[in-house]
Amino acid sequence: MIFEPSQLHFASEFTRYIFLNPFDRRAADELRLRLLEIDLGPSEEIAHRPSEPTSVRPEIVRLLRRVEALLTELQDRLRTGVVPECYEEQRALEGLLIGALYLRHFEDRQPLHEAGDGTQRVTAYRRFAADLRGWVDVPFKFSEFVRDPAHMFAVFFQVRRSFDLIVQLVRGNSRPLNGLRAEIWHSIFPHELQLYGSLLYDRMHDVTTLILGPSGTGKELVATAIGLSRYISFDAKRERFTEPLAGAFHPVNLSAMPIDLIESEMFGHCSGAFTGAVGAREGWFERCGRGHSVFLDEIGELAPTVQVKILRVLQSREYYRVGETEARKFAGKVIAATNRDLGEEIASGRFREDLFYRLCSDVVRTPSLREQLVDCPADLPFLVRQIAEKCLGERAWPEQINWLADLTVGWIEKSPLLGLTYAWPGNFRELEQCVRNIMVRGTYHPTKLPTLLRSSSTQSSREPAAAEHTRTALDRFLTRVRASDLTFEEILEHYCSLVFARSENITEAARRLCKHRSTIQERIKPELVDGFRFQ
Fold it and tell me: Could you give the residue ranges of the DSSP H alpha helices within 284-440?
């Protein structure tokens, strides 16, 4: 055996640690402390290599010294002809080496500063490659992943960049949010991370990700983090990444497209495919090349005819341009999102069950704002300050941003309608509007549109009039129906307007009426909505 029993235990635990989901903080902290307590004997006294990371936590530096000391001892044994006797030993040896290289070269984030848009040379690669060659210069054949410095550098870069993207895009300290970050991580890297560099780095695009959660909970931010955290190969000769870091994420808001244009936008069309198609046009699936991601937002809004075509893409990774008979290959990754209950949609026949089972190989759920604040009330000032910074713009002084943030938090805490127990039904979007209202008006009242149009000072006195107004509008509608005084189209207009007035938005109205939102929107009349709206 190349390891002493205590050394093998340490190496196996360190391998677990280095491949752990970094957002499983409790497990990582406990494992790191256990590693520092394992007695390795005299090997710890061997001098460690220079050039260790300079901007990481002291306990990480101490752990790295222990790993490098053990690697130096194992390297000497390898040179005498002693080799790992089993897979467990080889895995532990490579885990030590991979972990040491990552902590030495990527824990301080330096390579990220040089990567740029793919056109800049990454000089940090030279130090990394030289370091790797120094460790593997022994009479033992390591795995292909360890023997390919450019590929290992690219994987390490992806790991570091993915971590930073997730932290940057998903902000907050609550347990629900940290759980969300951990879920995003596993949408990028498999649970067994040691398999990623050798087997799965170019196959994760085959896994479709479905993001579920209420409206306004940041599903597009989650999709962006996943889509931009892709593997990009590194050209060792040119010392550059082979593609730009950006431009690989293609969001498509399905609910914003007219139903008759969705297929053309998604799949493209050939010249003459329909009236107005004067030239060929590529769709989103065609623009989404290998390593890229197409994000289908509000996939629950899709008509059944389009659902069938999406199913074909996921099953065979083929699609057809509108008007063409030649199949085209889809090389990217599909990320989809919806705020609908797909179980209800399937039961009602509005969503295909087979499409759902093609989408759900990787499911991420976004927590509501209420869940976040219940777990960590201190996140409220933090989130409000982020919004205040966005509202006031780049020219704002920190003192001005703090002023708006403090004013907003103070209003929320003192308001009888808000307070720390408010449910925030509009989630983060509603919190944004709260900040903007306070910036413009100095107040925010979480009420529906009719109340917003009324002065707060006269609100209570006008409630009976509002109720009477509602009854009058409904009575007029029912009277005309009984008298057969409405055309079929007028009945549809009245009823669609009534349902919309009693719904949160057009999407909810369309769901209740089991019709596409564009069909409902055409029949909604503002003057009718005003009559039906008061609650």
Answer: 284-287, 304-316, 342-347, 353-359, 369-375, 379-392, 398-414, 427-440
Domain boundary residue, one of 446, 477, 496: 446
On whether both 273 and 377 belong to a single domain, the answer is no
For residues 440 and 532, give the distance between their C-alpha atoms in angstroms, rounded to a whole number: 29
Chain centroid to Cα 23, Å, comes to 14
From the list 128, 13, 108, the residue with the least C-alpha distance to 66 is 13
Please tell me the predicted confidence (pLDDT) of residue 501: 79
Q: Are residues 31 and 131 in the same domain?
A: yes
Each residue's pLDDT tens digit, 308-361: 889 999 998 988 888 788 888 988 999 999 999 888 889 888 899 999 999 988
Examine the domain organization and report whether 417 and 330 are in the same domain: no
Alpha-helical regions (H) of 423-505: 427-440, 449-452, 459-482, 488-501
Nearest CA to 216 out of 372, 87, 381 is that of 372
How do residues 274-285 score in pLDDT, each as one tens digit? 666 667 788 888
**Do 517 and 436 belong together in one domain?**
no
pLDDT given for residue 439 in this prediction: 93
Could you list the residue range(s) of the whole structural domain that residue 514 is in? Answer: 456-533
Tell which residue, 524, 520, 516, has the closest CA to residue 298: 516
> Which pLDDT belongs to residue 455?
40
Tokens 């609550």 -> residue: 174
Query: Within this chain, do residues 363 and 504 fall inside the same structural domain, yes or no?
Result: no
For residue range 496-518, list pLDDT tens digits in order: 888 887 775 777 788 888 887 77
And the tokens for 424? 């925030």
Q: Is 327:369 a contact under the CB 8 Å cutoff?
A: no
Which of these three, 319, 340, 367, is where a domain ends? Answer: 367
Tokens for 303? 């008509």
Number of structural domains, the chain? 4
| Residues 38, 166 within the same domain | yes
Whole-model pTM?
A: 0.78
Average pLDDT, the chain: 83
Sites in the chain below the pLDDT cut of 50: 44-54, 449-471, 534-535
Checking phi first, is residue 293 left (phi over 0); if not, alpha (psi -120 to 50) or beta? beta
Provide Rg for the chain, Cα atoms: 29
